[in-house]
């Protein structure tokens, strides 16, 4: 393959996840990461961009196409006006990480043999991205949070039954059903729908306070967004995505104390080839969803500072592969792989 031209500008592109936003998801983290790289990449320009808020409804491919269209325009404009070659690092939170990875996979697939990828993606940083699904206990714990609205949730389950035969039973209180005993990965096949249902429970809880009947709002919500998260229960497709990606990537995921530790995402088994691309971030948040949603907050994520330096260390490793080998400071700690 023809090597990519030397990079003159390094673009950090941040993509929010399901129901996130450009204004509120990442807070000041993009600028922090840019600042670290400015100190360690003096030879070139480092720019941090937050991809504009997009609708997390419809198909995931629609979101991927939207990102690629925006990225192509952004890179073309910069390379034309600055007469520089840009290398992009895609940084996605939650489902945004899936959008980033599928965008890179699409670019690689559409690149003619022997030609460099353009726009050139030098690496992917994912933050709490459910590459293998959302952990089943996230749904269980969220149901406990909404225990006061179980009756409304059960009504929602009845309405949503046509799109998932097991949905109604999943919405039942734990004491009325058996606990699944499937493995972490096999559980992922139903976790995606469970996650959507869990959020629907939250929607139902709010609607129960403001409307006479929460069913309509819950049904509207799930019908608009279910197709976007449907990949979370495509177990085979999720594993193939991790095996097929040729661009360097790494996923940082939140981990709460417990036996076993509690995580928002399904973590790959240590035997998987791609397990080394996943690094835990220990946090003391109240629950998995809180840790997931606020991982870019310095005041709530106790691993916020290590997350930034470890992310910068990975980017420092990937930058030479993009065409230039700058003298990075060795003091930035490297992310440790899973045991």
| Rg calc | 21 Å
Low-confidence stretches: 1-5, 146-150, 152-209, 323-339
Domain count, please report it: 2
The CATH C-level name of the largest domain is Alpha Beta
H and E order: EHEHEHEHHHHHHEEEHH
Overall pLDDT level:
75
- Main sheet makeup: 7 strands, mixed
Determine the strand fraction and express it as a percent band.
5-15%
Approximate shape: globular
How does CATH name the architecture of the largest domain?
3-Layer(aba) Sandwich
CATH fold name of the largest domain: Rossmann fold
Within CATH, the superfamily of the largest domain carries the name Alpha/Beta hydrolase fold, catalytic domain
Oligomer status? single chain
Helicity level, as a percent range? Answer: 40-55%
N- and C-termini, Cα separation: 34 Å
Structural class: alpha/beta
Number of helices, counting only DSSP H or I runs of 4 residues or more: 11
Q: Got a strand count?
A: 7
Domain DUF676: 11-135
Protein name: DUF676 domain-containing protein
Pfam families: DUF676
Family: Belongs to the putative lipase ROG1 family.
